[in-house]
Amino acid sequence: MKKLLLFILLLSGLCGHAQFGTNVFGKDPIINMENFDKQRVHWGYYLGFNSYDFKFAYKTNPGVDVIAKSTTGFNVGLVGNLRLFENLDLRFEPGLYYTQRDLTYTHPELVRPADMLREVKSTYIHFPLLLKFSAKRTGNVRPYLLGGVSRSWNMDSNQEAKDDNITGERFRMKTWTNNYELGFGVDLYFEYFKFSPSIRGVFGTGDELIRDNTSDSPYTGNIESMKTRAVFVNFTFH
Fold first, then answer.
1. In angstroms, rounded to a whole number, what is the distance separating the alpha carbons of residues 17 and 71?
2. May I ask which residue range the UniProt record assigns to the signal sequence (predicted)?
């Protein structure tokens, strides 16, 4: 995530430097797209990165039965923005999110490396409904906060699969999950477009794990709940 944050800062700096010569972000900036935010509805698209993780809760022995390692995935989607008030917008940002989490189990019954590791590959169709609270615009810069709820469809959930984890072929999760989201970003106004880098956290509200058929399974027997945690870094263009 440090690399992702550094990438945002560098990209924002490059964009600012590219038009600094025309006094876009200087002391007396030329105001770009002055009336853009006064539109009732406008559209955009985003590209970005994600880092998904799991938060585990256990029934007994509240140690670490599962070690989750996240990887960097990618996002792509559309933005629909509805202006409610001067500083408040309603946003719908459906998108495709691809990610992978590697789970290492520490149960003493599991000895072989192949039994201890499960690769959880997920392709989500993500449906967030967010409120955007914008600060007062200063020149060509306007910071904002985001918050709202979302629902995700995991296309690789394997919810209907009959095989337990012991087979090593599938990791089973629930197909639909509910989340809440919190984040922040900044709108940068250029001559022909608005660029908005943002970062937000995603917090699953329900248990997503499908239990094995045996109650004492070393993979699911001691797990009380498994909930998604994620960080999204999106670059939006309007």
1. 31
2. 1-18
Question: What is the CATH classification number for the domain harbouring 131?
Answer: 2.40.160.20
Sign of CA dihedral 59, 61, 65, 71: positive
* DSSP assignment string, 18-63: HTGGGTSSSSS----STTGGG-SEEEEEEEEEEEEEEEEEESSS-S
Select, from the ranges 10-14, 141-145, 218-222, the one with the highest average predicted confidence (pLDDT): 141-145
Which own/partner pairs from 15-21 qualify as long-range (CB within 8 Å, at least 24 positions apart)?
A: 15/188, 15/190, 15/195, 16/188, 19/190, 19/191
> CA–CA distance from 106 to each of 16, 51, 53, 70, 230 (Å)?
49, 23, 17, 17, 23
- Residue 213 is predicted with a pLDDT of 85
For residues 207 and 19, the model is more confident at 207
What pTM, to 2 d.p., does this model score?
A: 0.84
Q: Which tokens belong to 43?
A: 């559209």
Q: Quick check: 208 and 226 in contact, CB under 8 A?
A: yes
Q: Tell me the residue range of the domain where 132 lies.
A: 2-237
3-state class (DSSP) for residue 166: helix
C-alpha distances in Å from residue 198, one per residue of 86, 95, 162, 185, 235: 20, 15, 40, 4, 7
- Partners of residue 91 on adjacent β-strands: 81, 130
Distance CA 95, CA 77 (A): 4
Q: What is the pLDDT of residue 125?
A: 97
Q: How many domains does the chain have?
A: 1
**Mean pLDDT, all residues of the chain:** 87
